[in-house]
């Protein structure tokens, strides 16, 4: 995620290298109120800022406020109010610090309850509308990504922009977060591999069953074809007909034609015999 107005930051850095005293104090105020600037590490590294911090107690408090916006939260501001300028935060600063607070919370947890957010953002209990507006502004500023669930009263984080890192204080936290992320990634990969293995086994099982079905179908086809061929042979004989079978006698010696001849011959002999007898 890229929530940084780089052109504005570059302008402020160039000015920071040239101005001093009250002009530098005014520059810090402009940076903290600018709606598109949410990282301040480069400004804090400027030699002019470091010199200004040492120039007076008020200057020290002003730079402390810049550091708060770089690394801290609204809760820290309220808990250590004496470390910062006596003047209250302007509405623009207060709004930005709330958004940065949401960003810090989102970097530490993927599920933020509305109650926890309301406490951290110094909102009245039950003021859901104002809380939702702050979350929406933080999303539009590209500081966080996620989805609000009004029914469950929570904000599910899916992405978060990085804030300035305070070395070496924040190094251990970074290592811890990266370690947790690594373990979570390993678990996801293991789950995916297990699922792929299961899917592969299921596919092999399906292919085996499909082959068995095809084999059975072929067997049935072969059997039916054999029965059909047999019926065709019998049908052919039937085509010759029982009449055909009757005509077989014609092909045999002593068939109907021979019988007729014998009968005629016998008749002639009989008549001849009788004649002879007479």
From TrEMBL:
Residues making up the signal peptide according to the UniProt record: none
GO CC, one annotated term: COP9 signalosome
Keywords, sorted A to Z: Signalosome
Origin superkingdom: Eukaryota
Region (Disordered): 248-278
Domain called PCI: residue spans: 1-162
UniProt cross-references to Pfam families, sorted A to Z: CSN7_HB_subdom, PCI
InterPro entries with a match to the protein in the record: COPS7/eIF3m (IPR045237), PCI_dom (IPR000717)
Keyword Ribosomal protein among UniProt keywords: no
Family: Belongs to the CSN7/EIF3M family. CSN7 subfamily.
Record-given protein name: PCI domain-containing protein
